[in-house]
Amino acid sequence: MKIAVLSQDSSLYSTKRLVEAGEARGHQMPVINYLRCYMNIASQKPSVIYQGKPLENFDAIIPRIGASRTFYGTAVVRQFEVMGVFSANESQAIARSRDKLRCLQILARAGVGLPVTGFAHATKDIDGLIDIVGGGPLVIKLLEGTQGIGVVLAETHQAAKSVIEAFRGLDANILVQEFIKEAGGADTRCFVVGDKVIASMKRQGAEGEFRSNLHRGGKAEKVKLTPEERSTAVRSAKAMGLRIAGVDMLSSNRGPVVMEVNSSPGLEGIEKATEIDVAGKIIEFLEKNAAPGKTRDRIQY
């Protein structure tokens, strides 16, 4: 097979591992910097051009789209879909997952467990917004934040009010969520491929840090999921339309609650924590499922 990895940087761990896993199985695995692609949008012969040459005869693509490049990255993925190329994750699903508010609304519609979440526009509504999630302590998140950046824990009602007013003063869109104290600064990352969780790890935040992101000093270890956690992860990925996803959840007194569904989950942390060949599992999925014109995203919201 000829499989393109859409990535800005071929030296990244996840990109290298996907290339290694694919080449080990005899596939061609070129890395394409999607930001340097341009497109011929035509009904007769649509194409993606890279370094002056049309990209042709690809069996599949693996999008590794950076959060800050979602708009252009999904446009490139969509163009490949127009050309009938199978995508590990389709453009609509990637766009849904990157919009945190839309993601939570879709998961809520699917009946997936979530932390109590509030969203508002006007600063006059702050007190009511804080009351929705049960008051302080609570978590305030920028909709555009990634890897724990733009996430603030406000211990009191007044502190929350001050932070929200500051963010809204900058015209930033924010979510307000209940603080799941019983999680103890830990969360679980479930790596879903197809309709299965193929690897999972527990991430523990550094001492004094409520965020468990590995980029912020968190530590990871292999963890065995409960049947409810496994089912929640698979249902979350399916609700978003993602074939490959990292589903992050917290353990609460009412069961697992989903914090985020990531369409380009990193491989380094979970492969090292679990010693599972996650990249190989992704290539195996493409071998079994990739077929021309098999773009079937019919979720309309």
Question: Can you walk through the features of this model?
Answer:
This protein is of the alpha+beta class. The chain has three domains: 3-89, Rossmann fold (3-Layer(aba) Sandwich), CATH 3.40.50; 97-112 and 182-288, ATP-grasp fold, B domain (D-amino Acid Aminotransferase, Chain A, domain 1), CATH 3.30.470.20; 117-179, Dna Ligase, domain 1 (2-Layer Sandwich). Helices cover 32% and strands 25% of the residues. It has a five-stranded antiparallel β-sheet with strand order 14-13-12-15-16, with helices on both faces. A four-stranded parallel β-sheet has the order 2-1-6-7, with helices on both faces. The chain has a four-stranded antiparallel β-sheet with strand order 8-11-9-10, covered by helices on one side. Helix 1 (13-24) packs across helix 9 (278-289) and helix 2 runs antiparallel to helix 3. The longest helix is centred in the C-terminal third of the chain and has 14 residues, at 227-240. The chain starts with a strand and ends in a 12-residue tail after the last helix.
Topology record:
Blueprint: E1 3-6, H1 13-24, E2 31-32, E3 37-40, E4 47-50, E5 53-54, E6 60-63, H2 70-82, E7 86-87, H3 91-98, H4 100-109, E8 117-118, H5 126-132, E9 138-142, E10 151-154, H6 157-169, E11 174-178, E12 186-193, E13 196-204, E14 219-222, H7 227-240, E15 244-252, E16 255-262, H8 268-274, H9 278-289
Parallel strand pairs: 1-2, 1-6, 6-7
Antiparallel strand pairs: 3-4, 4-5, 8-11, 9-10, 9-11, 12-13, 12-15, 13-14, 15-16
Helix pairs in contact: 1-9, 2-3
